[in-house]
Amino acid sequence: MAPTTVAAIAPAAASPGGMQPPGMYPAYLQLASMTPPAVVPPAILPDGNTFCVCLSVVFNPSDFYGQIVEKANPTVKVLEDLQQNLNKFGSQSEAPVEEMVTKGSFWICRFQGDKNWYRAQVLDVLPGPTCQRFRVLYVDYGNRSTVLCSFLRPLPPELASLPACAHRMSLAYVGPKQGNKWDESAIGVFVKETGFNISLIAEKKGHRRAGFEDITEVVLWNRNGPTAVNINVVLVEQDVAVLKSAE
């Protein structure tokens, strides 16, 4: 799954999700209803006040995701091995019926961008005139999509044990210049300063909960050059963000 600045959108031409797919026999439904749903543990931050991170998805400076970069936590290798198994199970298993898919549940979900299968959590169930759609979060990267049931597959327990690899973050102390919405110029500066292929230092400054996710408020530093760069400050200096007033 390539790093991105936008959420993936499921194609409108995907097959209806409410119908029982070929090969999905009643025995499968009975087995699925008896099997406890798999649960992916939440992402775990390292101890201490700082951690190394490489951004994977950016929506705006208040809503972005990254993966931990640590010698003791080889995320890339772990995800490569996991990916092989997810693609295998995703291509060999059948889609569930809509009634089995509930808010908060975990599945293997196809990503429209690269056609691979990833671990995902259902954030919301959206009713429709002919079938339901499901808002999902790809828990190891941070992409979000709205998909049909035909994009989902059961997540085997052995592939659910690894904690989610994507950490949701928000820049501390800074906010949009006007209102609550970041403009494109601010997002552009943020992406330019952070990139998707460099290791950044995230300094923990706060924590909050939104829906099913924990959000860590951070100050981001780029220390790859001769001088450390405080990315939060850069946004203010380039006049695309303002300092938040003390609450």
UniProtKB/TrEMBL annotation:
<dbReference type="GO" id="GO:0005737">
    <property type="term" value="C:cytoplasm"/>
</dbReference>
<dbReference type="InterPro" id="IPR002999">
    <property type="entry name" value="Tudor"/>
</dbReference>
<dbReference type="InterPro" id="IPR050621">
    <property type="entry name" value="Tudor_domain_containing"/>
</dbReference>
<dbReference type="InterPro" id="IPR035437">
    <property type="entry name" value="SNase_OB-fold_sf"/>
</dbReference>
<feature type="domain" description="Tudor">
    <location>
        <begin position="100"/>
        <end position="162"/>
    </location>
</feature>
<protein>
    <recommendedName>
        <fullName>Tudor domain-containing protein</fullName>
    </recommendedName>
</protein>
<dbReference type="Pfam" id="PF00567">
    <property type="entry name" value="TUDOR"/>
</dbReference>
